[in-house]
Amino acid sequence: MISSKSAVLAPAPRAAPLEPAPATADTATTDAATTSSSSNGSDPASEDAKKSESYSEDMQKKMGTTLTYRHELGLNYNRILPDIIVGSCLQTPADVDHLADKEGVRTVFCLQEDSDMAYFSLDVKPIQARCEERGDIKHVRFPIRDFDPFDLRRKLPKAVARLAREHKPSEGTIYIHCTAGLGRAPATALAYMFWLRGQKLDEAYELLRGKRMCSPRIEAIRSATVDLLVGTEPVMATIAVSRLGTTTDFKAGWGGRRLQWRGVAGLDVGWHVQLPLEPEKGTGRLVLRRMLQPGTYPYKFVVDGNWTYSADHPTIKDGNNINNILEVMGRSVPEHLAFAQQRLLAPGGDLTEQERAELRGMLCPWDSHRGVHPPGPEADGPDGFIVGEDWTDKLP
Questions:
Q1: What is the CATH number of the domain that holds 293?
Q2: Furthest C-alpha separation in the chain
Q3: Lowest CB count within 10 Å: 43, 63, 216, 333, which one?
Q4: Do residues 161 and 361 make contact, with C-beta atoms less than 8 angstroms apart?
Q5: What number of other Cβ atoms are within 10 A of residue 76's Cβ?
Q6: What is the pLDDT of residues 341-365, one digit of tens each?
């Protein structure tokens, strides 16, 4: 049960804005921000600035980060590898020209949903038209839901396969972006580096974070890796709390107010949806039961309209934010697969050469990446055959 001492209201901390980095080969240039900002014609007092503040507060609460996003400042990006840039969203056709002419970008890989663009009143059509007009840069969309680690986990394999199909490392740079370039975009770049570029996940994570302040969901990548290589089936998971909090005054931290349980946010539905806690007959508990794939799921309780965590349930600290965490174990699998699953989900867990070959076969059978694949066995697909492009349609 959640006691008066263990129910802790965890408001998102405020933080300094993410400013454009100094101009170096590995960081976003101040010219990039100036170009986009001036062409957008906005200033810190504009409507965009107000929306940025609201977006940042939402991001801090749902991602457990102290980072902020300043849309009104224009493009903000960092070069992670010689052929990979991760950054914020393009806002005008002039941003296309800047990336193509100044950074050698040949592919823009957009992870935004239409609703993301609508929030900041962005029109993607002029950006796409400018790419088509130039002819030396293409615009590719692969929407992933913002602030939703499960949607990220589910879509990462196809996102990486699409990225690999569109990107030719020897012919130019790919610009991977979401809205702020702090969650979905770095996570997609990280999965690509891990699955197809021969890097260890934790080392690639440190490399990426050393280049760009961001908060990619590394646990979503670990879970997606297991989904691809081991295969997972949903199992029933349960979260339960005492109903005591619905009728008892909490003196510590709640001002003596009566509390009403609303539900749980996070898990597989992301932070946009609240799953209800239902009374359990005969126990006096409030319970949420849900079929979930094996993996690690962050969540928060919603109590009296406030987002809170319980110290009586497992927690994880992400920056200055604390979430509860649910570990879902899979059904029994053959011993060798169980060991592989345990290894891949653990911090520091790496792929074997054969697993890397399997991932190359599933996600990138195209000749464009033969020169950047790490040495190892042939990139065979499932059952030892070289896969065709339509295999990606069968990915989870």
A1: 2.60.40.10
A2: 68
A3: 43
A4: no
A5: 29
A6: 899 999 999 999 999 999 999 999 8
User: Is the confidence at residue 77, as pLDDT, over 90?
Assistant: yes
**Residue with structure tokens 């976003």?**
28
Residue 180 predicted with pLDDT over 50: yes
Sheet containing strand 173-177, edge to edge, reads 77-81, 84-87, 173-177, 105-110, 138-141
Whether residues 158 and 247 fall in one domain: no
Tell me the C-alpha distance between 289 and 280, whole Å.
11
Residue 9 located in a structural domain:
no
Residue 27: inside a domain, yes or no? yes
**327 contacts 280 by C-beta, under 8 angstroms:** no
Report residue 239 as tokens: 């979260």
Q: What positions carry a catalytic annotation?
A: 178
Statement: residue 251 has pLDDT above 50? no
Helix (H, G, I), strand (E, B) or coil at 212: coil
CB neighbour burial string for 313-324, b if at least 16 within 10 angstroms, e if fewer: beeeeeeebbbb
**Taking the model in full, what pTM does it have?**
0.73
Number of domains in the chain: 3
How far is residue 85's CA from residue 110's CA, in Å, rounded to a whole number? 12
Has residue 386 got a pLDDT over 50?
Answer: no
Domain end among 328, 361, 376:
328
Taking the C-alpha atoms of residue 244 and residue 272, their distance in angstroms, rounded to an integer, is 27
Q: For 27-66, how does the pLDDT look when each residue is reduced to its tens digit (9 = 90+)? A: 333 333 333 443 444 454 479 999 999 999 999 887 878 9
Q: Is the dihedral of CA 270, 273, 278, 284 positive or negative?
A: positive
Compute the 3-state secondary structure of the chain and give helix, strand, coil in percent, each to the nearest 5: 40, 20, 40
Mean pLDDT of the chain: 82
How far apart, in whole angstroms, are the C-alpha atoms of residue 37 and residue 35? 6
Closest CA to 40 of 156, 126, 113, 108: 126
